[in-house]
Automatic annotation (TrEMBL):
One of its GO terms (biological process) is retrograde transport, endosome to Golgi. InterPro entries: Vps35, Vps35_C. It comes from the Eukaryota. Plays a role in vesicular protein sorting. Belongs to the VPS35 family. PANTHER family: VACUOLAR PROTEIN SORTING-ASSOCIATED PROTEIN 35B, VACUOLAR SORTING PROTEIN 35. The lineage of its organism: Eukaryota, Viridiplantae, Streptophyta, Embryophyta, Tracheophyta. It comes from Hibiscus trionum (Flower of an hour). It holds the Pfam family Vps35. This is Vacuolar protein sorting-associated protein 35. It is found in: Cytoplasm; Endosome membrane; Golgi apparatus, trans-Golgi network membrane; Prevacuolar compartment membrane. The keyword Cytoplasm applies.
Amino acid sequence: MLNGTEDEDKWLAEGIAGIQHYAFFMHRALDSNNLREALKYSAQMLSELRTSKLPPHKYYELYMRTFDELKILESFFKDDSKHGVSVVDLYELVQHAGNVLPRLYLLCTVGSIYIKSKEAPAKEVLKDLGEMCRGVQHPIRGLFLRSYLAQISRDKLPDIGSEYEGDADTVMDAVEFVLQNFTEMNKLWVRMQQHQGPGRVTEKQEKERSELQDLVGKNLHVLSQIEGVDLEMYKETVLPRVLEQVVNCKDDLAQYYLMDCIIQVFPDEYHLQTLETLLSACPQLQPTVDVKTVLSRLMDRLSNYAASSADVLPEFLQVEAFSKLSNVIGKVIEAQVDMAAVGAITLHVSLLTFTLRVHPDRLDYVDQVLGSCVKKLSNIPKLEDRRAMKQVVALLSAPLEKYNDIVTALTLSNYPRVMDHLDIGTNKVMAMVIIQSIMKNYSCISTADKVEVLFELIKGLIKDIDGADVDELDEEDFKEEQNSVARLIHMLYNDEPEEMLKIICIVRKHTMAGGPKRLPFTVSSLVFSALQLVRQLQGLEGDIVGEDVPVTPKKIFQLLTQIIDSLSAVPSPELALRLYLQCAEAANDCDLEHVAYEFFTQAFVLYEEEIADSKAQVTAIHLIIGTLQRMNVFGVENRDTLTHKATGYSARLLKKADQCRAVYACSHLFWIDDQDGIKDGERVLLCLKRALRIANAAQQMANAARGSSGPVTLFVEILNKYIYFFEKGNQQITSSAIEGLIELINTETQSDSTNPDSISDAFLASTLRYIQFQKQKGGVVGEKFESIKL
């Protein structure tokens, strides 16, 4: 291969040297106005282009050298005062050159001047040159010769408004000349492929042919620039002739390139009005032609044209662009039986993009495209190509991006059917795209039917699909997916309680099938969604019975109990306890004492039987105490039972410090400001004294274990509770009790002076400053605090 390249370089160098050699003598002849010598040496120079040894890109170098020299020669020919020969005679004279290739280059050069002189009609000269150039049938030499002809004639065509415009049909003559040149060049270009060889050589030939494609395509560009080519002429003459050549050449490279050229160089309006003619060529192309890219580019151009102005949209309806494109895509897929799945899906993506841009209001068109894709996918046993999967995701994402509303996509009957063809991983990706679209656009799904469809679409996230390998699941990805589902549940809402309950039941049905690993993520959202409905219904009587009873809080609480019970399979007792307490608060607001009591009972059962970790117990007991404090629905008996349980559990915590804090927190259960019935000063004092005993025991244990009593933080915390209840008017909390506690703290601090604790000291100082501040207030408060001697 290397030797071949070296040989080509050597031949190119020899050719350039020959051109330079003969060009030197040609220049000398031109300087002396010697026409005969000039023609002789120019013909010899042009003979260097007769070589067959060079590949196209190196032949091009040779061609450009001679092109520059021909420009100089043309300038000489123009000035007949230098050579004294008329242009007509000159046109005859150059035809005496010995070899056909130099003769034709010279003929084209003089022909250019001949047309400019207007001594003969441009159409006659052009026709003559076109016919003469048939004399060179070698592919590369012929292509470059005709390229030269196109180059020198492009500004001399008998077009409307051109200085070379003649009588009637001049535009037709110009079109005929360019079409003829295009046809001949395409035949030469295709002929390069006919010399078949080993695979590597054929590959090389394809590359060489690709290097020459622009020479052929320039003719189509020239056609598009002719002013006289209006829509009628394009429709009746230009497009049919070009397509005839494209289809008949039966060469995949030429067909792909030329179809792309047609789409790119001619106006969008022409494409729209001749859509049927243009599309009719697509199924006739070779099976190896990349038709999907051709059609995709056509649809992109038409989409951009539609987006450019609303005035053109009626034209699309008039020509029935959608149905024509849809039909041809079906025919192409049918004709190209070996087309890969990715190609067919890409065509549908392009058609859907076109539809969404041109006919966004026609959901039936969108659904039709999806249905057509489903039909194609149904013929594929299993879609495994990653590129095809990516295109399916693009297909499904397009409506979401266009409408910014999942509700619209949920009305498309074929949307779920397309998703069914995705593999498990891609199904999850698409489900995440759907959820992200809902969150981004704040889309509210408000009917049970649509929620059912939506959860069918995202089933890959909410339950294990057959064949999924659960062990391979990335933990972080799994959490992100489930958190997304949890957020989605909050976007399902309807003001009508009955419809909202249906939505909750559908979500419950789907999420309960998710297995123990998913439930901790989704149950919370479902519970709070149901509690939101309860808040809507506050005040409704919940004891009505019968078949057609309206939605009542009591019914929802029964459902909530079942939902939270499902967490026992996980198990997740801490979460279940929190949710029971939330439900108890909601039952309190609905004045349902027995329901609230039942939720508290469930919370205590979980605390006793399931929560063993000491830290979790501390958190749980404080949650229970805090929730119980806010309850006002309980009668005396039920409240006493629950508060007794809470204080009992508080005193049985593992660490003394935790016991102390939980017990003094229980004091708030017996003194609630906004309820006159619950202000039991004695029991408050009992809780605080019990907390004080526990704090004292904690100090003694610390002293025995470490040789020092440790910080007095617990005493200061209890002091703050004493001050709180003293200020609230609890008669059992006296100033002397507060003074005694302050004295105890000071004694403890002094006895442990070897280990000062800055935090406890600062806490105590702040507490004492508060007492002082209250004293200075004056009035009833100041008088009350005045009795405390510091």
